[in-house]
Amino acid sequence: MALGKPRREGIDNPAQKSHCTLIRNVFRLVGREVEGSTLIGSDVAIEGVSKSFGDFRALNNVSLTIQKGEFFSLLGPSGCGKTTLLRIIAGFESPDDGAVTFDGNDVLGLPPNRRQANTVFQNYALFPHLSVFENVAFPLRLRKLPRSQADSQVKEYLRLVQLEAHAHKKPNQLSGGQKQRVAIARALINKPRVLLLDEPLSALDAKLRQHMLIELDQIHDKIGITFIYVTHDQQEALSVSDHIAVMDQGDVLQVGTPHEIYESPATNFVARFIGETNLYDGKVLGVNKLPHVETEYMVELEIAELGRVKVTTVDEVKPGQKVNFTVRPEKIMITTDKPASKREDINHFQGTVDEPIYSGFQTKFYVKVNDTAMIRVIKQHANYSDEGPDIVWKDSVYLSWSANDGYILGIKE
Ligand code: ATP
To answer: Strand 346-358's sheet: what is its strand order?
Structure first.
C-alpha cells in the first residue's frame, strides 16, 4: 500500500497520528488543568435524531458518537443541518425524534444552562456596555460567586486567551479576533464539559481566521474538554479536527479522521466536497488479489473518457460492476519527458495543457486527454534542480500516478 493510504475500515497506524493527537489522548484520560482547576470533557452521543421545520426535514435520523476531549467537526454546505444539530445538542432546539446523551445521561429534558455545554456564536454576542473583564465575569456574577474568587478566575481565563492587557476595553475597541477570544473565555469560565462552536471564525478575514484557528486548537489542547465545531470550510475542519462528520441535506454521509475523509471518501459528494478531485464513472474489467496482501486487490477499470486505469482497493469488486473512480490532483505527476518507470502499477496518460493556473506555492493544470477527458493536476513548487522545464499552456505532457493513489467508491451492482 502507498504510504498513508488507509484501508476503508480506518487507520490504525500510530505513525500516522500526530504527536499532538497522542498527547491530547493522554490528557483526555486524566482531565486537564487550567491553573489548578480541572476541566473534564464529556462523551456526547446522538442517536437517531430527526428534526423537521414544517414540511422541511432538516435532520434525518442522525447518529454520532463524540468522545470525551475530542475536537469534533460538523462539516457540510450551507443548509445541510449542522447548526440545527448543534442547537439540539446545546438545548436551544428540540428534536422530533431521537436521543442526546452526555456521558450516557439523557440531556434532552434539560434546559441549555443545565447541560454543562456552552456555545460560542458566530456573532460573538458580547455585551457592548461591559468591559472585556466584565463580559468574561458575567456568568460568574450570575452565579453570585464571591468577587475575589470570580476576579481571579476571570484573570486566569483572560490569560488563557491572551487578553490580560485588554481587560479594561469595551467590545467596540477590540479587533474581530479579540472579540472572538472574549466570547471563548466567557464560554469556558463556567467550566463546561462540552464547548459548542458555531462557525466562530466566519466573521474574520482569511489570515486572521488561520491565526485564530491555531489559537483555538491550542486552547483545546490546554483545556482538553470536548469541542464540537460547526463549519462549512473543509480546510478548517481538516486542519484541527480529531474526527469530522460530513453532512449533506440532513444526513451524515461519513464520519472519520481528516485523513480517512480525504483519502477514503465514502461517497461522490464527500470526494468532491473535501478538496478537489478527478471523479469518473468506470466499469470493472479484471480483479487480481495482490501477492502478500491478504485484503487488497489490483483492479483494472474501463473509464469511458480515459481508457484503462489500474487501481488498488480493499473492497471486493467483480468484473462487470459499475463503480466510481477518483484520483486527487496532487497525486498525479506531470512531466514534459516520458517517465522512465516501467512499474506495472503506474498509470500513464498523455495530454495537452489546456489551462495552467499559477497560485504561488503551486500550479494547477487542466490537462486534456484523449480529446474528451479533462484531468486536474496540482504541482507543488519545489526548488530542486531536477524539476525540469516550466510547463506552460499548450505543452504536450505526460501524466502518471500509482494504482495505490486512485480510489474506488460508489460500488454499484
Ligand atoms: P449554514 O452553514 O448556512 O448556517 P447549516 O448547515 O447550519 O447552514 P441549518 O441552520 O441547520 O443549516 O439549517 C438547515 C435547514 O433548516 C435550512 O434549510 C434552514 O433554512 C432550515 N431551518 C433552520 N432553522 C429553521 C427554522 N427555525 N424554521 C424553518 N426552517 C429552518
So the answer is: 333-335, 396-402, 346-358, 362-369, 373-380
